[in-house]
Structure to design on (415 residues):
């Protein structure tokens, strides 16, 4: 058995949220279920190069045909694959003008138009459409460390036009021009995607971010909460949330978090921030089956705190991202295959089936998922009493504690 009831109890977190039932939607990628797992790693070489069969369908994991980044289920656009994304490379050399205020928005959209049609050839595409632009951030203040080049170059651009302008005024204009151009570029790109492939779930990877990375600071008690300042800054990105069809925050774990009591609050508040700004939009966090900057697989306990907690908080699903390192050798591919077959696959089945049962029992099966709001009400928690080795559960295996308020509201907790 993957996880014994006792082990589950050790890592169970009570999560209670008021949910509003929504009418059923027909997005096939989400399969009409409350929680879906999507594989987004280029593992096509498994069979082609090494003869290793990575069968994810056994665990109801949705995957693109041929295990590619681009397909009918999910498409991810990196910076060089969509329009004329401006940025500075590692040598601080400008590409496509370097700054969003340096490009022609029309030229960018013309190229993005063709890129979308070439990449998503099916007009009725209704999968995930994720734009991964990470070189600069749309809010001026968040371009720190290596990203300071965008501030410096923006100010230099203003100085070239107005050499006698006071420094404070230069800063003011540079900030305004950068943020306005960045907003127009990102928003219009989302809108173009909606126009060309209206059924796709368009959104930017890594947004919103909680910036709750201070778990390494041992001088205080880590709560995982997003700094108030960062939540206020996220409120300044309302234009992005309104233009997105889905939100894709990340809940990647560094090795410093392995088996740490900080994992739970770290993940929890990153998802909660997504829920806070999303309104009625689905949340699909990006996660990994390995710790970042390593090829070490997550422990069972950390799987609970990532995949399990995502489901418990009301995410529409989770995206398991990976890079070409997964297929760097036959040996590691076999390790990935074993980890999926023996550990993560069974846990995903357990979580998915449990959420489905809770949705049917609590929400009477209405809607493809329950959409969260922020009102904590009468606790109604579905607790999995027995995890069967096959990952199949019956309604009698659920213990109901307290009843929800009369009406359409319900709460759900599953880990």
């Amino acid at each position: 058995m993957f996880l014994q009831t006792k082990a589950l109890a050790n890592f169970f977190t009570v999560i209670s949220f008021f949910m509003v039932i929504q009418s059923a939607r027909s997005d096939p990628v989400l399969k009409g279920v409350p929680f879906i797992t999507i594989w987004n790693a280029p593992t096509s070489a498994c069979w082609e190069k090494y003869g290793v069969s990575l069968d994810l369908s056994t665990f109801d994991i949705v995957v693109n045909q041929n295990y590619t980044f681009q397909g009918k289920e999910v498409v991810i656009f990196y910076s060089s694959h969509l329009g004329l994304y401006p940025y500075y490379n590692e040598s601080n050399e400008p590409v496509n003008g370097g700054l969003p205020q340096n490009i022609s928005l029309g030229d960018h959209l013309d190229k993005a138009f063709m890129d979308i049609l070439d990449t998503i050839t099916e007009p009725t595409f209704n999968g995930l459409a994720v734009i991964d632009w990470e070189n600069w951030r749309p809010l001026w203040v968040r371009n720190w460390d290596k990203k300071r080049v965008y501030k410096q170059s923006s100010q230099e651009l203003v100085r070239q036009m107005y050499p006698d302008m006071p420094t404070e005024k230069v800063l003011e204009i540079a900030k305004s021009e950068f943020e306005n151009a960045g907003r127009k570029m990102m928003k219009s790109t989302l809108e173009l995607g909606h126009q060309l492939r209206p059924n796709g779930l368009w959104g930017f990877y890594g947004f919103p971010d909680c910036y709750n990375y201070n778990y390494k600071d041992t001088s205080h008690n880590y709560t995982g909460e997003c700094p108030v300042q960062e939540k206020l800054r996220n409120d300044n990105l309302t234009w992005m949330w309104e233009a997105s069809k889905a939100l894709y925050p990340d809940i990647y774990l560094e090795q410093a978090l392995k088996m740490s009591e900080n994992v739970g609050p770290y993940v929890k508040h990153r998802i909660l921030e997504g829920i806070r700004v999303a309104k009625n939009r689905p949340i699909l966090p990006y996660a990994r089956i390995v710790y970042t900057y390593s090829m070490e697989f997550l422990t069972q306990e950390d799987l609970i705190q990532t995949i399990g907690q995502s489901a418990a908080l009301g995410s529409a699903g989770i995206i398991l991202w990976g890079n070409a390192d997964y297929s760097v050798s036959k040996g590691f591919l076999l390790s990935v295959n074993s980890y999926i077959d023996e550990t993560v696959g069974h846990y995903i089945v357990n979580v998915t089936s449990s959420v489905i049962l809770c949705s049917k029992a609590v929400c009477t099966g209405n809607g493809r998922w329950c959409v969260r709001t922020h009102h904590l009400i009468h606790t109604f928690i579905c607790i999995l009493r027995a995890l069967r080795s096959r990952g199949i559960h019956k309604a009698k295996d659920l213990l109901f504690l307290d009843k929800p308020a009369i009406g359409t509201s319900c709460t759900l907790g599953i880990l």
User: Anything to note?
Assistant: The longest helix spans residues 330-363. The first strand starts at residue 19 and ends at 21. The radius of gyration is 22 Å.
